[in-house]
């Protein structure tokens, strides 16, 4: 008997690398989804553990296409346009509840399920098996359907694969340890994701000092139509010479917190300044709180 739910295994961010221990596959820009198939029925569970079976009628016949019972797949649901996932089109599918509209969109914007893991087989968990064994079993049983495909992968050459994938317009790359088990709900080094770093022009709105009075980090905000959006603190990229020169300039701009600054999580001890100095910041991604993850100061326009 299959469990009521399984928390999806998660990945950490990483710079691209090569390794014979890892496989590399496309990071699909879609909705993470586990397919539970048992006794002629199918249930779709998203990352938040919600049942979304009703949204995707194109997958309802998979139990009849599958040669085995008691199966759980892990993968990503996407809507493709010219061979590329388009998240905006997927959102059209995600936000519809009317059965009539669901049927219409399933024909107009059919979804594809890219399967990348097998967690249960014949009603038994195989999550403790190494990934390379789970991949082999997956390839043997994946159902033939116009709406289902195996997520292909390569071995060893992660850096070159990442460059190729980004050049083709995909979101990024997943690197997975071939010997790793599947750890539900865990974010560990067995699964790593490569994503291109973004760059934004920001304004310096404040700074923090070390106990010895030297510059510790900058607080940056991005100008938008709705005002300044706080993007967090930046310390990487601040060398000693630049920090000294910046601090001298910033001390002359000391002011109250900018009235149009939006956001939260402002650190204690912030020295606010007039947002007059611009900078360029690179980052891994923007968090759910609207701040840069792993920011690096690339340039200051003094």
UniProtKB/TrEMBL annotation:
It is an enzyme of class 6 (ligase). GO terms for molecular function: ATP binding; DNA ligase (ATP) activity. It catalyses: ATP + (deoxyribonucleotide)n-3'-hydroxyl + 5'-phospho-(deoxyribonucleotide)m = (deoxyribonucleotide)n+m + AMP + diphosphate. Keywords: Ligase. Residues 113-196 form the ATP-dependent DNA ligase family profile domain. InterPro entries: ATP-dep_DNA_ligase (IPR050191), DNA_ligase_ATP-dep_C (IPR012309), DNA_ligase_ATP-dep_cent (IPR012310), LigD_ligase_dom (IPR014146), NA-bd_OB-fold (IPR012340). One of its GO terms (biological process) is DNA recombination. Its EC number is 6.5.1.1. Belongs to the ATP-dependent DNA ligase family. This is DNA ligase (ATP). It comes from Thermodesulfatator atlanticus. The lineage of its organism: Bacteria, Pseudomonadati, Thermodesulfobacteriota, Thermodesulfobacteria, Thermodesulfobacteriales.
């Amino acid at each position: 008997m299959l469990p009521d739910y399984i928390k999806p295994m998660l990945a950490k961010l990483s710079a691209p690398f090569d390794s014979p221990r890892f496989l590399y596959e496309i990071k699909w820009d879609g909705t993470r989804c586990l397919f539970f198939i048992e006794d002629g029925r199918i249930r779709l569970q998203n990352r938040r553990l919600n049942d979304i079976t009703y949204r995707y009628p194109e997958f309802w016949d998979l139990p009849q296409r599958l040669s085995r019972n008691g199966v759980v797949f892990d993968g990503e649901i996407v809507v493709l346009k010219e061979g590329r996932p388009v998240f905006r089109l997927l959102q059209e599918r995600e936000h519809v509840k009317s059965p009539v509209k669901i049927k219409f969109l399933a024909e107009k914007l059919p979804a594809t399920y890219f399967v990348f893991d097998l967690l249960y087989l014949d009603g038994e968990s195989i999550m403790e098996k190494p990934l390379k064994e789970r991949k082999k079993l997956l390839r043997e049983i994946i159902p033939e359907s116009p709406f289902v495909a195996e997520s292909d992968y390569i071995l060893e050459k992660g850096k070159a694969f990442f460059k190729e994938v980004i050049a083709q317009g995909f979101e990024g790359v997943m690197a997975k340890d071939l010997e790793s088990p599947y750890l539900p709900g865990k974010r560990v080094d067995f699964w790593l994701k490569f994503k291109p770093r973004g760059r934004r022009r920001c304004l310096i709105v404040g700074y923090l000092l070390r106990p010895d009075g030297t510059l510790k980090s900058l607080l940056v905000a991005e100008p938008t139509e709705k005002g300044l959006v706080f993007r967090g603190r930046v310390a990487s990229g601040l060398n000693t010479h630049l920090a000294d020169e910046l601090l001298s300039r910033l001390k002359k701009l000391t002011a109250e917190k900018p009235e149009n600054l939006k956001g939260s999580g402002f650190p204690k001890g912030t020295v606010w300044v007039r947002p007059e100095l611009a900078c360029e910041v690179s980052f891994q991604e923007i968090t759910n709180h609207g701040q840069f993850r792993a920011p690096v100061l690339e340039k200051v326009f003094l």
